[in-house]
Amino acid sequence: MRYTLKLLALFISSLAYSQSSNYASSVGLSGGYAEDGYGIMATFNYHLNRDRYVQLSIFAAIAEDKGSFDIPYNIFTVQPGYFLKVWEQKNFKRYALSIGGGGVFGYEIINNGNNVLSNGAILDAKSKFIYGLFIGLEGEITLSNDFSLLLKANEYYHINSDVGKFYPYAGLGLRYFLF
Questions:
Q1: What are 59's strand-pairing partners?
Q2: Residues 61-79: b if buried by 16+ CB within 10 A, e if exposed
Q3: Residues 42/70, Cβ–Cβ less than 8 Å
Q4: Tens digit of pLDDT for each residue in 96-118?
Q5: What pLDDT was estimated at residue 174?
Q6: d(Cα 50, Cα 48) in Å, to the nearest integer?
Q7: What are the boundaries of the signal sequence (predicted)?
Q8: Cβ of 145: how many Cβ atoms within 10 Å?
Q9: Which end of the chain is more exposed for a tag (fewer CB within 10 A), N or C?
Q10: How far apart are CA 88 and CA 90, in angstroms?
């Protein structure tokens, strides 16, 4: 865990201090649907050029599996990724669509860390560190020089999750360009 935090700190600091004067960095915040509940995502983008950027995201989901028993769970992840713009409006560059993907590292908390349900049933699932991959789609509508409306959809593949291997997120938010 300590090495993961050092790697993330190195990634963030290298992006922040190697900023080119030609391209912007941006931050975004979106909220919306996550499987069985709600999610929120904060992003930092380092734009390599007009069509490519690397992204570091932090995602949190608050949900409840409604099967035979209602089992609450939370997911907290960090996601380094790479995105490529695949479409942009020609005339005014007001609309854009990007696709990307990357890794997912985080922690899932099942039933608030308790393996016994309120009715006495014992859960087989455990709270633990999770990892995997994601693919994402981002739509962007420019509002001004500094702000854009962000439409975000990610599909996660958690290799070792007890909640489920595939986990979707779709959200709406704002992106602010720093430089």
A1: 41, 77
A2: bebebeeeeebebbbebbb
A3: no
A4: 999 999 999 999 999 888 888 77
A5: 97
A6: 7
A7: 1-18
A8: 8
A9: N
A10: 6
Maximum CA pair distance of the chain?
63
Q: Could you tell me whether strands 147-158 and 95-110 are parallel, antiparallel, or unpaired per DSSP bridges?
A: unpaired
Angle at 174 between CA 46 and CA 95, to 5 degrees: 80
> 3-class SS at 117?
coil
Q: Give the predicted TM-score (pTM) of the model.
A: 0.82
Token pair of 172 as six digits: 């709406």
What lies within 8 Å, CB to CB, of 17 at 6+ separation is: none
107 CB contacts (<8 Å, ≥6 apart)?
A: 75, 76, 77, 127, 128, 129, 130
Question: At a CB cut-off of 8 Å and minimum separation 6, what does 34 contact?
Answer: 61, 62, 63, 75, 167, 168, 169
Q: Give dist(CA 11, CA 45) in Å, integer.
A: 12
- Three-state DSSP state, 17: helix
Among 128, 134, 71, which Cα is nearest to 103's? 134
